[in-house]
Amino acid sequence: MGSPDFALPSLDALVASGRFRPSLVVSQPDRPRGRGRSVTPTPVRARALDLGIPTLTMDRSTYAAGIARIAEAAPEFIAVVAFGVILRRDLLEMPEHGCINVHASLLPRHRGVAPIQAAILAGDGVTGCTTMRIDEGVDTGPMLLREEIPIRADDTAGTLSTRLAGLGAGLLVRTFDGLLDGSVTPVAQDPALATSTKKIRKSDGAIDWTGDAAEVARRVRAMTPWPSAFTALRGTRVILGRVAGHAGPSSGRPGEIVALKPLRVACGSGQVEILELRPEGRRAMTAAEYVAGHRVAVGDVFAPTGAD
Question: How far is 9 from 227, CA to CA, in rounded Å?
Answer without folding.
Answer: 23
